[in-house]
Each structure stands twice: as structure tokens, then as C-alpha cells.
Amino acid sequence: MPEAQNPSDGSKSDSDSESESDSDSEDEAQAKAQIESLQTELSNNPSNYDTHVQYIKILRKQGDIEKLRQARETMSSLFPLSPEMWQEWAKDETSMSSGVEGVPAVEKLYERGVSDYLVGFYTALLKCK
Fold first, then answer.
1. pLDDT level of residue 41 (50, 70, 90 thresholds)
2. DSSP assignment, residue 10?
3. Which of 23, 48, 103, 126 is deepest in the core (most CB within 10 A)?
4. What is the rounded (10 degree) CA torsion for 74, 69, 43, 55?
5. What span, in angstroms and rounded, lies between the C-alpha atoms of 25 and 5?
6. What is the pLDDT of residues 89-129, one digit of tens each?
7. Is 88:112 a contact under the CB 8 Å cutoff?
8. Which residue ranges have biased composition labelled Acidic residues (predicted)?
9. 3-class SS at 81?
């Protein structure tokens, strides 16, 4: 005869809620430490492409839009961003803008992204001639 099992009512105990809260706090503290570490790396070596990418990813995950915008602007002033990075940026700006007021800013981002690749393409083309 199988053993009787206690059905779970799906509610969380206080200890479950506390451990989730502790886990969230730990995650936030870890993310903050990682952001600070990446900022230090970038101030010491601003031309480190991979560090810029990591910094942008973690800021995006944290939702710190002002720091994220600044990080993207800084990186785009040093390197051409990948098409995916331009698309993420435009998507983020679109989701934060309300109505048609945000359309010109998003269009500008797409134009900048296209420019990154057209300039590189034409430069390569000229080198071939």
C-alpha cells in the first residue's frame, strides 16, 4: 500500500519568503559589486570591448536606464556596436517612451546603427580598390 502524502497548498512558509528575500539581497549585492568591478576595469582600460559588453548587459539586467544609456553612448563612441546591440538599445528606448514623442529618438538610434555598418562597409570597399 503506498504511503500517504501531504498535499501542498502552494503557499510559501515564512522561512521560504525570508530565504527568497535574502537571495534577492545577495543577488543585488553581487550585481552591485560586479558593476563596480566593471567600472573600475573600464576606467583602467577604456578600450576593452568585452568589458563594455559585460557592463551593458548587467546594467540592462538591473534596469538602471541612465547608467545604461551612458554606457552605450561611451561604447558607441569607441567601437561600432553590433546590430544586436543597436536593436536592444532601440527596443529599450521604445519600451520606455510613451507615444509618438519617442519615435524620433528611436529612429536616430537606428540611423546611427546603420551608419556604423555603412561606414565600415565603404571603408573596406575603398581599401579593395
1. very high
2. S
3. 48
4. -110
5. 34
6. 999 988 887 777 778 888 888 889 888 877 666 666 667 65
7. no
8. 16-28
9. coil
Q: What is the DSSP letter of 100?
A: G
State the residue for C-alpha cell 509618438. Answer: 100
C-alpha cell at 43: 576606467
Query: What's the pLDDT score for residue 94?
Result: 87
Give the 3-state DSSP-derived string for the chain, with helices as H, strands as E and coil as C: CCCCCCCCCCCCCHHHHHHHHHHHHHHHHHHHHHHHHHHHHHHHCCCCHHHHHHHHHHHHHHCCHHHHHHHHHHHHHHCCCCHHHHHHHHHHHHHHCCHHHHHHHHHHHHHHHHHHHHHHHHHHHHHHC
Distances (CA, A) of 36 to 31, 68, 92, 115: 9, 14, 23, 32
Q: For residue range 51-95, what is the model confidence (pLDDT) as tens digits?
A: 999 999 999 999 888 999 999 999 999 999 988 899 999 999 888
Residues 6+ apart with CB under 8 A from 46: 74, 78
